[in-house]
Design a protein that fits this description.
It is a single chain. The protein is α/β, with parallel strands linked by helices. It is built from 16 helices and 9 strands.
Length: about 350
């Protein structure tokens, strides 16, 4: 399956690409109207304000191609801001026209909840689920006795029991399956999942992004996660991975000694280096969390690499990565915290002169 992801400058493209790659889909990131018109399946992601998103699409000449593909029946998925832009208009920072593919207007969430209590906007959090029919809880419904491993009742029974439409039940099952709460087994039915599912991590990412308490807290989280990843990778090290890391170190040296200040190229190899170390731990959940942390620290990591390369300290960057490989090969974890911390080059992060 090939999916065309529209890039108009306001998108978390890395996360979208990784999500489709996880399911074996090939992705094409593009800003070219011709690619959009030739697409088999389209994804319109987005992060930011509604007007900025529509302005980006207009500037690149993408509005009409998207509308034409939607009219032709091409599958089109809108994510976050991308989904909002599918509507007629939005009230965000004034009234602005959307793509007009879905009738309706995007409006601001109310400042109070259903009980009149103040609620935070943007609203990223857990909320109570209210059953229909005037009930205050789910006692006496088909959900009351469910536990991990149980098969949930059929849709008609759930709908009748809770006093809601079957379509509402169907959509709820889809969402809970995406979140890893339910799982469907062909010819058997839908079951309550047992244990923690990797997909449960995804909804947490947005909360972390919007609620970063401080830079220091984020850096502490980074050090804790990367130190743990190094210990896992050291325990499960194999020489094939070691040779791959060596090859990346050689690429880093070549970039540094080229004298061309190729920051983006070095940063790309740096990401590949750390992604491989994360995968070497052979723990999908740890790898997922590591990638989230690296996404959250993208800006500070890029600034560090950029400053080191352009100030002539590229050899120090290479040496720091070489030390990580030495630790992995030696299966030694005594000084791993100090070594990992050393790769952050705190003098760059905190604006100090070396």
């Amino acid at each position: 399956m090939k999916v065309t992801v529209i890039d108009y400058g306001l998108s978390n493209l890395l996360s979208v690409r990784h999500a489709f790659a996880h399911f074996g889909a090939e992705t094409l990131l593009t800003s070219d109207p011709a690619d959009v018109l030739a697409a088999e399946k389209l994804v319109l992601p987005g992060v930011g304000a509604f007007k900025d998103g529509m302005d980006g699409l207009a500037r690149l000449g993408l509005i009409e191609p998207i509308r034409q593909k939607a009219a032709a029946g091409t599958p089109l998925l809108g994510i976050c801001l991308g989904m909002q832009m599918l509507f007629d208009e939005s009230e965000e920072f004034g009234l602005h026209k959307g793509l007009g593919l879905i009738p309706g207007r995007v409006v601001k969430l109310p400042d109070t909840d259903v009980d009149g209590h103040p609620q935070k906007v943007p609203h990223i959090s857990w909320d109570p689920l209210y059953p229909g029919g005037g009930r205050t809880d789910f006692s006496g419904t088909a959900l009351a006795a469910l536990k991990p491993g149980d098969r949930i009742p059929p849709e008609p029974e759930l709908a009748a029991s809770m006093g809601v439409a079957r379509s509402s039940v169907r959509e709820a099952i889809k969402i809970l399956s995406y979140l890893g709460v339910l799982e469907s087994k062909r010819s058997e039915g839908t079951f309550v999942c047992s244990g923690f599912q990797e997909s449960m991590i995804d909804p947490m990412i947005y909360g972390i992004i919007l609620n970063q308490d401080s830079f220091d807290n984020l850096m502490e989280l980074r050090e804790m996660v990367e130190t743990g990843i190094m210990r896992l990778a050291s325990q499960k090290y194999d020489e094939e991975d070691g040779h791959a890391l060596e090859a990346m170190l050689e690429q880093m040296k070549e970039i540094v000694h080229s004298g061309d200040n190729e920051v983006d190229r070095f940063f790309a190899v740096d990401n590949e280096f750390h992604d491989l170390i994360s995968q070497m731990g052979k723990n999908p959940l740890a790898d997922k969390i590591s990638r989230v942390v690296r996404t959250l620290t993208h800006a500070v990591r890029y600034e560090t690499v950029s400053t080191m390369i352009t100030s002539g300290r590229g050899d120090e960057l290479v040496a720091a990565h070489s030390k990580l490989l030495e630790i992995l090969r030696g299966h030694e974890g005594e000084d791993v915290e100090e070594i990992v911390r050393g790769t952050y080059f705190g003098d760059i992060i905190h604006g100090e002169e070396k």
